[in-house]
Amino acid sequence: MRIEILDAARVAQLEGAADPARRYLASLIKSGPAQFIENARVGIEALLVDDQVLPLIIGARVSGNSNVCSAYAHYFEYAFQEFARRHGKLQLALTKAPRVLFGAMLRDGSVDRAVFVNNWLFTTNPRHGLSSAQIAELTAYLTRRYPDSAVVFRSVNPVSYRPGLDSLRTNRYRLIPSRRVYLLDAAGQRHLEHRDARRDLGILRKTRYSIVETPDAIAPHLARMTALYRDLYLGKHSQLNPHYNAGFFALTLKDGFLGYRAFLEDGRLDAFVSYLLEDGLMTACLLAYDLSRPQKQGLYRLAFALLIEEAARRKVFLNMSAGVGDFKMLRGAELVQEYDAVYDRHLPVGRRLRWESIQLVARLGRLLK
Predict the structure, then answer these.
(1) Based on the domain organization, do 353 and 279 belong to the same domain?
(2) pLDDT, one tens digit for every residue, the chain (369 residues)
(3) I need a labelling partner for 176 at 20 to 30 A (CA). Which of 239, 313, 338, 359 fits?
């Protein structure tokens, strides 16, 4: 079995280097992730596992990092933001003491000393595609190379890639509930049994917006796309979301790593979606729209209808990511638990106890939802 660490030049020299994913990865390695995602102050390498090239994010405790590359940000800061949003100030005040203790324990326990396999710095990552034997060899390799770091695979679930989850479990990875995501079987057209899906698709076909998809048509609107994304994901939701900048959108658009669709009217871009396409699976990566436009225009509904239509045309499953569950289930999506798989057996007992605590709190949080 072949396992190597590659620099940007080696990635570019590989057979298949014209692949958009490899070009994206080579750019991240060459310039550094923070050049494109401003709160991703992490290291990055390329892993060659036989014929597969995967990103390896090397984490360390850096204040203000995004939840896509920091266990502390995801399992403490982001989790309690969501708790406060759901349960209000009274419940937040009542849980202050255990919350402060939990946060201090995670910081002191260095949970951000971790290496993330197959972390493309998206909220939802593509499937890792590794066999159980490959994971065993890779885990041994990484624990030798990074003996003080946990090994983490993000974004695994039992529906879109059951073998990948089972392979991690076989190799004694700890499965920690991360998020609940929504998957829609667009291949089977069962979503058309749902009235809301049919209605939205009907509205999409009648929209006055022009829908564009080529890089040349979308590229002039990169600044507008960045502003729409930041208004929604950072302003309305959380500063812990990735701070993608115009360079990120230019990079993923130009090389075709992400598919983009945009809604234009009178030369103004009012909404866009992006997605990642794999064999049999389409993952919604980003969806943003102008929050100042009247709600009756239904830009959010139009954007999701476009994703559903695209997935149905390609006859694939659609991972609609997390959030707005009632909306997505009314359009035929299935609720699926997503996990982070963590290997910590080589770490000292105190470090393992921190991950056990995260697992316990995550399971408790799942029960309370």
Answers:
(1) no
(2) 899 999 888 887 775 557 899 999 999 999 999 999 999 999 999 999 998 999 999 998 777 899 999 999 999 888 878 776 776 665 665 566 666 777 777 877 688 999 999 999 999 999 999 999 999 999 999 999 999 999 999 999 999 889 999 999 999 999 999 999 999 999 888 899 999 999 999 999 999 999 999 999 999 999 999 999 999 999 999 999 999 999 999 999 988 999 999 999 999 999 999 999 998 999 999 999 999 999 889 999 999 999 999 999 999 999 999 999 999 999 999 999 999 999 999 999 999 999 999 999 888 876 555
(3) 239
Rounded-to-integer distance, Cα 70 and Cα 39, Å: 10
Considering its fold, how many domains does the chain have in total? 2
The answer as to whether 213 is a domain residue is: yes
Quote the domain boundaries for residue 145: 3-69+93-179+338-368
Same domain, residue pair 281 and 296: yes
**Residues β-bridged to residue 156:** 339
pTM listed for this prediction: 0.93
Q: 188 and 64: one domain?
A: no
The DSSP secondary structure of 144-171, one letter per residue, reads HHSTTSEEEEEEE-TTT-HHHHHHHHHT
Cβ within 8 Å of residue 73, ≥6 positions away: 65, 66, 67, 240
